[in-house]
Structures are given as C-alpha cells and as structure tokens.
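Please go through this protein, sequence plus structure tokens, and consider how the sequence yields the tokens. Keep your notes short.
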Amino acid sequence: MDHHYVGIPELTGVPRVAVVIDVMRAFTVAAWAFSRGVERIVLASTESEALALKESRSGWLALKDGAPAAGFDAVNSPGLLRSCDFSGRTLVQKTTAGTVGALAVADAPLVLCASFVVAGPTARFLRAEGAGPVTFVVTGEGGRADEDLACAEYIGRAMAGGDVEAAPYLHRARTSRAAADLAAGLRSGYHPDDVDLCLEIDRFPFAMVARREESLTVLRPVAVPDGPAQ
C-alpha cells in the first residue's frame, strides 16, 4: 500500500484518511492526558482561542507549548502531566506543530492523531477500518522531523500485518534533533523524562480519533483490542 508522507506545508486538498504525527510532544501528551482521565481534547488554533474556550466553559482546562503561563493549567510535557488528575475534564490543547497539523486536515473523513505511545493501536484501528492509503502528516520541522517520520513509517508498516521490529524506528527518534534539543533542555516546559516517555512503544491501548463536533475539532480515545494489525 502506497502511503503518503507529507509536511503541513505540502498538504493539498483534503485526504481521505489522515494520521497526524507529533512524537515530541503533542500527541504523546494527548495520550497521557487521556490516561489521566481527560474525557476529550479540543484542538485550538491559537493560544488566545484556547484561553477563550476555557473561559467560556465551566471546568475546562487549557494546555500550551513552552513555559507555564497565566490562564493555562498545564504545559506540553508528558513528564509534567503524568501526575495530574484530570478525571472527566475537557482539555483545550494548542501546540506549535501537532495541533496545527490536525486542524489542517480536520475536514478529512477520518483523522487520527498519533505518536509511538499509541502506534500499535493506531495501526490496528486503521487495519480494522480498511483504511488506506493513508496520508501521514509529519508535523515537525516542516515535514522533515525524523522522529515523526519514523513513527509514521512504523505505523504504515504495522498496518500491513505481521511483526514489525520497533527498535530501528525508536532509535531514529531517539537520535533525532528534537530528542537532542529536549535532552539538552533547550525547550521550555520540559521534564527530564520527556524523551523516554515519548519513546514508550504502545504504552496505551487506544487510538486517538479527531472529529468535528459542532464548530470544534475534538480528539477522543478509542479503545482498540490487542492483537496483530491484521
């Protein structure tokens, strides 16, 4: 199956099936947020929109890239998020790359957001849906981020069924520029465990599906049974 791997600037038209990849860190963070009890994640196009959405709905929370800021309840770090209790809450997420990519393909009939922590369930979900070929949106570095491309290629291979060795793909991600920047503390809103947490293959048993709900683009977890992607 000939999947397509594109950066956000290269998107043209509306794909039939889109999988938006942000390993470090938006869609690792999103998966962790669901594991900490978040019911749904609303994707915002700007920080101002994120705050406006939070302020207009009782009990909503907001998360952003970078350092903590007034009005935001969390930052885009799995290490900082993993101890939070967000049971039953709605989280509004705005990041530099991941949420931008998801919103760019929000009109596609099927949109998933993914990282290594949900890679296997994502592949099995797509296989069960008979989805393909898939447009993988590589959000980092204008489509050149090797951690995102490695994850996309791993999911694409896993969709075909059979055993796929994750180690080479994880090695590419660990030696990527994004991983080096995180490990060096060059990104604010950072926890020392972030790189390792972003490279935990299949940590969670769900895929993450984005759909339009009224005027919003909403990400929700979808449980996927264990087993091979076939």
